[in-house]
């Protein structure tokens, strides 16, 4: 028989200290341990004064010349792109008298970078930016840009031509005294690359020349348009529309209609006839209705049936512009019928362009 435990014994057992009921002593590992006082912050290190010594013997132009001969091609191109920093450092006088002649010598045949296309391209882009650092003597930039306009690489020539146009826009006097003679020299160049640059340069200089010089520009351009070299003829055809934009209507009719007719009927290069579409549109926008009936309609109707699909595609793409230029009467009487042939063209791109043109020309086209 199990013996019963006295009640006072139970109470004694209940009051006996157990690990769970004993108070915990504060220790270092306990979360309630008292925080130690943090040591005082270390004093800051003593300040030292750095003295920068500037080398008074540093020659920025010599540094530029050395970088142009760097073995790393990327460093050479980077140096050419940052030529404006050299100009800002040495000032306008030394830029004109020292830096620009150094550049001209470097890009000439036999120069340190005459065969480095990356450097030449970078210089063609950078030289026009030196107008801010030559104190108005922008004519000093014409010789190196003219030299770059004679290079073989197209991108270099185009950048140089753009630079010459920017120089011409800064001053009509500079254009007439320096840029126009450069155009004449380029047009008379032995290599076709120089004559191609002349084709691209002529429209940009035209507005800034004297009347006598403008007449010479028209004469030179007509000669370039009939050049024996196919590349020059193509370049002239591509630039004709830009020249027509700045030449007055009477001069176009009296002097430039011949090159337009030869371009519209060229049997050798499809690209010339394609470019002629754009120049014809410029003429149509300048001419009256009677002028267009006499000088442009015949060319436009022939373009609709041209053997080159690119020419027909151009007619489809820009038909809405032609409608606005010619007006509803000429469009309906002379162009509407040949235009419908594009809707059945064997080339899909031509048909798509023709359909899109119809949507644009609904307000212009009229049915008699």
Can you describe what's shown?
The protein is 65% helix and 0% strand. The chain is an all-alpha fold and 368 residues long. Helix 11 packs parallel to helix 13, helix 12 runs antiparallel to helix 13 and helix 13 crosses helix 17. The N terminus is likely disordered.
List the helices and strands and how they pair.
Elements: H1 7-15, H2 60-68, H3 73-81, H4 83-107, H5 117-126, H6 142-148, H7 154-170, H8 172-187, H9 192-206, H10 211-225, H11 230-246, H12 249-264, H13 270-286, H14 289-295, H15 297-304, H16 309-317, H17 319-340, H18 348-360
Helix pairs in contact: 2-4, 3-5, 4-6, 5-7, 6-7, 7-8, 7-9, 8-9, 8-10, 9-10, 9-11, 10-12, 11-13, 12-13, 13-16, 13-17, 15-17, 16-18, 17-18
Please mark out the parts with pLDDT under 50 across 5 or more consecutive residues, or reply none.
1-39
Number of separate strands? 0
Rg, Å, rounded? 39 Å
Instruction: Count every helix, treating DSSP H or I runs of 4 or more residues as helices.
Output: 18
Distance from first to last alpha carbon: 131 Å
Q: Mean pLDDT, as a whole number?
A: 85
Fraction in helix = 55-70%
Sum up the overall morphology in one term: elongated
Indicate the structural class.
mainly alpha
The description of the largest β-sheet is: none
SSE pattern: HHHHHHHHHHHHHHHHHH
Q: In percent, how much strand structure appears in the residues?
A: under 5%
Keywords: Repeat
HEAT repeats: 335-368
GO molecular function: protein phosphatase regulator activity
Biased composition (Low complexity): 29-40
